[in-house]
Design brief:
Length: 226
């Protein structure tokens, strides 16, 4: 059976891996968004000593090597680590935590830039009506929701395509922590090319869909504001 036949037949193994991958990546993006959106907005709207260094650090973390994130989470969750007693290592939750840390700088940094641009545009109006700090955050996050959706989609694309991080903390356990990327690497080494290709086709389709959605959201928002 070739890759297309596996997809068309709804192969149980293939789609179980796809479901787990989507669950882990979407959960990671949701957690990163809850933290990263307000963090980026606050960083854009406040001034304090060391702010410039923090922005440089945040932007630098956007390119953080995934294996370093995986190793850090592994050390935290291992038996000898500070969170080892929780028993989270080699579980889907460990993969969600690792991917959240990987995606968080991307969302926070892109949010900061977006909100900073909006603040330059609406500073006088918001100051004139006496909107407080949290009101400014909420207002500008809502006004920039289309651009921020693009940031979230970028984070999802990074998470969905990641292999090193989830391999380290998840262990690539069959039927439990095996994602599309880790399964592709394993099945290719085993010579099971139909399954590897089937997963690769679905992964490419997801990444293309995410990029198309990001482009569509941006084009629609520009059309509305134009």
């Amino acid at each position: 059976m070739n890759a297309w036949q596996l997809i068309a037949s709804g192969d149980a193994t293939l789609f179980a891996i796809v479901r787990l991958s989507l669950m882990v990546s979407l959960s990671a993006v949701a957690i990163a968004a809850v933290i990263g959106l307000p963090l980026g907005a606050l960083l854009a709207l406040t001034r304090f000593p060391g702010r410039a260094a923090l922005i440089v650090l945040l932007n630098g973390f956007m390119g953080l090597p995934p294996v370093v994130v995986g190793l850090s989470v592994y050390l935290l969750l291992s038996r000898s680590g500070p969170l080892g007693g929780w028993g989270l290592l080699f579980t889907p939750l460990a993969m969600v935590i690792a991917q959240s840390l990987l995606v968080l700088p991307i969302i926070a940094a892109l949010t900061r830039q977006t909100i900073e641009d909006l603040w330059s545009e609406y500073r006088d109006e918001l100051t004139a009506v006496g909107v407080g700090p949290w009101g400014r955050v909420a207002t500008l996050l809502w006004d920039g929701r289309f651009s921020l959706t693009t940031a979230l989609l970028a984070g999802f694309g990074r998470a969905a395509a990641e292999v090193g991080t989830v391999m380290i903390v998840g262990g690539n356990i069959d039927g439990f922590t095996r994602t599309m990327t880790t399964a592709i690497a394993l099945e290719t080494s085993k010579g099971n090319l139909p399954l590897a290709l089937g997963l690769g086709i679905i992964l490419i389709g997801l990444i293309l869909a995410v990029n198309a959605a990001a482009w569509g959201v941006r084009a629609w928002s520009e059309q509305r504001t134009g």
